Amino acid sequence: MEIKIENTGDRIVVSLIGRLDTITVGELEQQVLPLLKAGTDMLFDCNGLEYISSSGLRFILLAHKKLSASEGRLALSNVAPSIKSIFDMTGFTSLLNFE
Which chain regions cross the lipid bilayer (predicted)? Predict the structure, then answer.
Protein backbone atom coordinates (compact mmCIF):
# COMPACT_ATOMS: atom_id res chain seq x y z
CA MET A 1 0.00 0.00 0.00
CA GLU A 2 1.13 3.51 -0.77
CA ILE A 3 0.04 6.38 1.47
CA LYS A 4 0.39 10.02 0.46
CA ILE A 5 -0.35 12.75 3.00
CA GLU A 6 -0.86 16.39 2.09
CA ASN A 7 -1.86 19.28 4.33
CA THR A 8 -3.94 21.66 2.19
CA GLY A 9 -4.28 24.22 4.94
CA ASP A 10 -7.94 23.56 5.69
CA ARG A 11 -7.66 19.78 5.96
CA ILE A 12 -5.30 16.84 5.70
CA VAL A 13 -5.71 14.69 2.59
CA VAL A 14 -4.62 11.06 2.93
CA SER A 15 -4.46 9.28 -0.44
CA LEU A 16 -4.76 5.50 -0.19
CA ILE A 17 -3.31 3.46 -3.04
CA GLY A 18 -3.42 -0.34 -3.12
CA ARG A 19 -4.81 -2.74 -0.53
CA LEU A 20 -5.80 -1.71 2.99
CA ASP A 21 -5.69 -4.96 4.95
CA THR A 22 -4.20 -6.57 8.04
CA ILE A 23 -0.70 -6.35 6.60
CA THR A 24 -0.84 -2.67 5.60
CA VAL A 25 -3.09 -1.10 8.25
CA GLY A 26 -0.19 -0.78 10.71
CA GLU A 27 1.65 1.56 8.37
CA LEU A 28 -1.49 3.69 7.96
CA GLU A 29 -1.96 3.83 11.74
CA GLN A 30 1.66 4.95 12.25
CA GLN A 31 1.31 7.77 9.75
CA VAL A 32 -2.22 8.96 10.51
CA LEU A 33 -2.76 8.53 14.28
CA PRO A 34 -0.38 11.40 15.17
CA LEU A 35 -2.40 13.68 12.85
CA LEU A 36 -5.74 13.05 14.59
CA LYS A 37 -5.72 16.19 16.70
CA ALA A 38 -8.53 18.37 18.01
CA GLY A 39 -10.35 20.26 15.30
CA THR A 40 -8.60 18.48 12.44
CA ASP A 41 -10.51 17.86 9.22
CA MET A 42 -9.26 14.88 7.24
CA LEU A 43 -10.11 13.42 3.86
CA PHE A 44 -9.30 9.87 2.84
CA ASP A 45 -8.97 9.95 -0.95
CA CYS A 46 -9.78 6.40 -1.98
CA ASN A 47 -9.20 6.86 -5.72
CA GLY A 48 -6.41 4.26 -5.74
CA LEU A 49 -7.87 1.96 -3.07
CA GLU A 50 -8.30 -1.51 -4.55
CA TYR A 51 -9.39 -3.49 -1.48
CA ILE A 52 -10.33 -2.93 2.15
CA SER A 53 -10.51 -5.59 4.86
CA SER A 54 -12.17 -5.49 8.26
CA SER A 55 -8.90 -4.17 9.70
CA GLY A 56 -9.04 -1.22 7.32
CA LEU A 57 -12.69 -0.59 8.16
CA ARG A 58 -11.84 -0.67 11.86
CA PHE A 59 -9.13 1.96 11.43
CA ILE A 60 -11.38 4.26 9.41
CA LEU A 61 -14.04 3.99 12.10
CA LEU A 62 -11.42 4.71 14.79
CA ALA A 63 -10.23 7.81 12.91
CA HIS A 64 -13.83 8.97 12.49
CA LYS A 65 -14.56 8.56 16.21
CA LYS A 66 -11.36 10.34 17.30
CA LEU A 67 -11.98 13.29 15.00
CA SER A 68 -15.69 13.54 15.84
CA ALA A 69 -14.94 13.55 19.57
CA SER A 70 -12.58 16.50 19.12
CA GLU A 71 -14.74 18.62 16.79
CA GLY A 72 -12.93 17.40 13.70
CA ARG A 73 -14.39 15.77 10.62
CA LEU A 74 -13.49 12.77 8.50
CA ALA A 75 -14.69 12.36 4.94
CA LEU A 76 -14.00 9.87 2.16
CA SER A 77 -13.86 10.66 -1.54
CA ASN A 78 -13.47 8.81 -4.83
CA VAL A 79 -14.71 5.55 -3.34
CA ALA A 80 -15.06 2.85 -6.01
CA PRO A 81 -18.44 1.11 -6.19
CA SER A 82 -16.92 -2.21 -5.06
CA ILE A 83 -15.44 -0.55 -1.95
CA LYS A 84 -18.61 1.50 -1.33
CA SER A 85 -20.66 -1.70 -1.26
CA ILE A 86 -18.51 -2.92 1.65
CA PHE A 87 -19.26 0.29 3.55
CA ASP A 88 -22.95 -0.21 2.73
CA MET A 89 -23.00 -3.84 3.92
CA THR A 90 -21.31 -3.00 7.21
CA GLY A 91 -23.55 -0.03 7.93
CA PHE A 92 -20.63 2.40 7.83
CA THR A 93 -22.29 4.47 5.11
CA SER A 94 -24.66 5.98 7.66
CA LEU A 95 -21.75 6.89 9.99
CA LEU A 96 -19.23 8.34 7.55
CA ASN A 97 -19.24 11.37 5.27
CA PHE A 98 -18.73 10.71 1.55
CA GLU A 99 -17.82 13.43 -0.94
Answer: none
**Using the 8-state DSSP alphabet, how is residue 69 labeled?**
H
The residue extents of the domains of the chain are 2-81
- Residue 71: alpha-carbon gap to chain centroid: 17
**What Rg value do the Cα atoms of the chain yield, rounded?**
12
Query: What is the tens place of the pLDDT at every residue in 51-98?
Result: 999 999 999 999 999 999 999 999 999 999 999 999 999 999 999 999
More confident call, 9 vs 42: 42
Query: Do 59 and 36 meet the contact criterion of CB atoms below 8 Å apart?
Result: no
How many Cα neighbours within 13 Å face the side chain of 58? 9
Architecture of domain 2-81: 2-Layer Sandwich (3.30)
